Structures are given as C-alpha cells and as structure tokens.
Amino acid sequence: MTMDKMISGPVTSSACGPIKGRVTVPGDKSISHRSLILGSLAIGQTRVSGLLEGEDVLATAEAMRKLGAQVEKQDSGDWIVNGVGVGSLSEPDSVLDMGNSGTAARLLMGLVASAPFNSFFSGDASLHKRPMKRVATPLTQMGATITSRSGDRFPLCVTGRDLMPITYELPVASAQVKSCILLAALDTPGITTVIEPKPTRDHTENMLRHFGAEISVETAEDGARTISYQGQQELTAADIIVPGDPSSAAFLAVAAAIIPGSHIVIENVGVNPLRDGLFETLGQMGADLTITNLREQGGEQVGDIEIHGGLLKGVTVPPERAISMIDEYPVLFVAAAFAHGTTTMRGLEELRVKESDRIAVMAEGLKACGVKLEELDDGLIIHGRAVPPKGGATVETHLDHRIAMSFLVMGMGSEEPITVDDGSVMETSFPGFSSLMNSIGANIQQGRSS
Ligand code: S3P
C-alpha cells in the first residue's frame, strides 16, 4: 500500500519553492492494460517490467485471471503472464469489476465478445455513468449481444459467440473503441477493418506486432488510417518493458513549468507521437522543455524530458491536437491559469464523458481558485494573469484521479493552499504521486489546510 492509499480523504497542496530532481513516473496505463490482455492470449510466458500497479490496471489483471490466464507479480517486481492462446478464454465465475477504468471496460468487452459465454461487467459510480454505446454498436454488428442498463451504461452483460468480421469507421476518435474492435477481431475469421479519420494512440497495433501478429496500417494523405487484422492468428509471448506514462509525467512537467527556478528531468517516459501533444503545447507556451535520449523500446518511443520553470504565455491550442493529449487537458488548464494572456482550448467534447465531466469540474474548481475563464460546450478559454492564482479552495474530485492531481499541482504555485476532497482517487493511475512530488520539493499533505 502506498502513502497515497493511506492518505484517503482530503489532501492539501501548499505553495512551495522551485522543484528540482531527476525522477521516473509509474508505467504507462494504456500499455500496462494491453500487456496483461495480450499476454493472456499469447502462447507462452510474458514477463512485464514496469507495469503500472494502479487500481485500473489491477482490475484488468484480476479480470484476466477470471478469464483463465495466470497473472502473478514476482518478488523482483516484474509481472508474469501465462497466456491461454487466442480463442481459449474461460467463462468467468463472477462479475468482472472494472472499477474506475473505461479502458479496461471497453477493451475487455471486445475481448470477450468472441468467447462463447456470458461475461457480466460492473464498475464504480463514475464508470456506471460512462457511454458504452460506442463499443456496443460495433460489437453488435459483429454478432455479440450486449444487454445493458438503460442508456447503454454499466452494469452490462456481453454474450459472446462466433463473430463476423466488419469494416467500421470510427464515429468518435477513440483508441478504446478501435482497440475493442481489434480485440474482438482476434478470434474472428476473416479480415476486420477499422477506419479512423483521425489517428488515435496505436499501442494495441504496436503490441500486436510485438507478439508476432501481422497487422496492416495504411495512412492516407489526410492522415486517416485504415487498420486491418486477419483474425485467428496465434500470438507468441514476448517480454515487455513498460515506459513511464506521459500522462503522469504531464503533472510533473506542468508543476516545473509554472514554478520559476524549477529544473527537473523525468527519465524513461513514453513519447509516442500520438501521445505527445502536451509537451508540444508547453513548448508553444514558452516552456523550456526538451526531450533527449530518444530510443525505441518494444515498438514504442521512449525519452527523457527536461524542464526548466519560467513564465508561460497564453496560446490557442489547435483542436486537431486534442487527440494526442486528451487526458492532459485538466493539467493544461492549470498551466493556462499561470500563463500570461489567454489560452483557448476547443474541440474537447470528449472531456465531458471521461471519469468526470472534466470541462465542468475543472471550470468550477478553477473559478473557486480565482481564475477567470469562459466555459464552452467543447472547451475552456482561460485568462491567465502571469501572477499566481489565489487558490484557497476545496475542490471536489468526482472520483477522477486527474482532477485531484491537477489541483494539487495548482496548489504548489498558488497564493493559498488548495485542498482536494479525496486523495485516494490518485491510486487509479499514479500510486505514490504525493510522495514523489514531495521528494522534489512539493508540500502536499494529508488533511485540510490549517
Ligand atoms: C485510452 C484511450 C483514451 C484515453 C484513456 C486511455 C486507451 O480514451 O482517454 O485514458 O488506453 O486506449 P478514448 O479512447 O475514449 O479517447
């Protein structure tokens, strides 16, 4: 159990001096989920190093065990997955509890759609509000039956059977939907094709290749991708080293960028070009940020990120960049609050259906901290004043880890301390967040400010 787990309840972040140090962040959440899922289908033993041991990924580990795979942590810290082979999942004898994780939910719904049994899914109050029609529609077209609560929400049951391949153009740019269909295709005869008008994170495609599968990806001149997979290929176990999560590194990068005099290096971070939008945007805002030591690791780009704190300026973030930084907007809103001038961020309607409505929840918390902003249907316009925001509020996290961490970062540079009502939600994706931040100079403590 990490310190952050023990400090459930309110957590307060107070102004600190420059942060300094050389750190690593926990493993990438997207890659961790996929390593357990695909490892569970591969023939042989997959060793996963650097797995994110956040609650979201642990929910996937538990589900894969219920579906018949052996998934164990070793004393060395590595995880060992003994796969059952494509098409050999077993019927789970209890509900698959996906906790807070939309990724686990949507990927596993695809995985079990071709398995000839009922899989019952549930999750927490946040997950029960999230839309599942986006995956129910293509899975139903392939032949699975999804029986859900009204509005296509959790809890639900996937009745799997032999599926038909489809060609499906994504109506919403979502790596979860793409991956759901590709996982359903794994044990479906024939060629399943997903067309994505805007490219989304490609970790599933990269990892399928890593496990020896052939997958065809064609990119059109306008950037649209056509991804085709011939079903019923065997997957062969292959070791995986999970890079640090750029979405977690984002909190450290913004903290360093908004506190003058800071200097940190975040080592071994995934910098897949479909995930690096926040770093590009911070650069555009004038942050002194460089990515060095670029290398390839298991089909993924990895590098070290170095940031010096300074004054940021407001920018207009191109809406088409949203997809490559969708999880980073809450903390980018914080950076914008510290910048000189106006930052306009649009094209973000998907933020309204994440773990919380991240536009509304962030707008409310930022306003309570004295930030001037305009809330739009698809984004926020934030008027930064180049002086630290007032802070001094208690913010509700709405079961959303990224809301909690964003406001704790904000407290590090605000005039008055900021409290989040429930620190335990950070366990979802970033175990040890407060301890890591404090080790480089933050002042984040359990409880309310005195
Ligand atoms: C994820 C895809 C994104 C992202 C989520 C992780 C994934 O969701 O927000 O945190 O691992 O595929 P969408 O596919 O809904 O955009």
Name a few traits of the molecule:
single chain, 450 residues, alpha/beta, UDP-n-acetylglucosamine1-carboxyvinyl-transferase, Chain, 2 domains, 4-stranded mixed β-sheet, 13 helices, globular, disordered N terminus, binds shikimate-3-phosphate
Protein described:
This protein has 450 residues and is of the alpha/beta class. It folds into 2 domains: 229 residues, Enolpyruvate transferase domain (UDP-n-acetylglucosamine1-carboxyvinyl-transferase, Chain, Alpha-beta prism), CATH 3.65.10.10; 213 residues, Enolpyruvate transferase domain (UDP-n-acetylglucosamine1-carboxyvinyl-transferase, Chain, Alpha-beta prism). It contains 13 helices and 24 strands. The strands form 6 sheets. Strands 22-23-1-24 form a 4-stranded mixed sheet. α5 packs parallel to α6, α8 packs parallel to α10 and α8 packs parallel to α12. The N terminus is likely disordered.
Q: How are the elements arranged and paired?
A:
Elements: H1 3-6, E1 11-14, E2 20-24, H2 29-41, E3 45-49, H3 55-66, E4 70-73, E5 79-82, E6 96-97, H4 102-112, E7 118-122, H5 133-142, E8 145-149, E9 153-159, E10 167-169, H6 175-185, E11 191-196, H7 203-210, E12 216-219, E13 225-230, E14 240-241, H8 246-258, E15 263-270, H9 277-284, E16 288-297, E17 300-308, E18 316-317, H10 329-338, E19 340-345, H11 358-368, E20 372-376, E21 379-385, E22 394-395, H12 401-413, E23 418-420, H13 433-439, E24 443-446
Parallel strand pairs: 2-15, 3-14, 6-7, 10-11, 18-19, 22-23
Antiparallel strand pairs: 1-23, 1-24, 3-5, 4-5, 7-9, 8-9, 11-13, 12-13, 15-17, 16-17, 19-21, 20-21
Helix pairs in contact: 2-3, 2-7, 4-6, 5-6, 8-10, 8-12, 10-11, 10-12
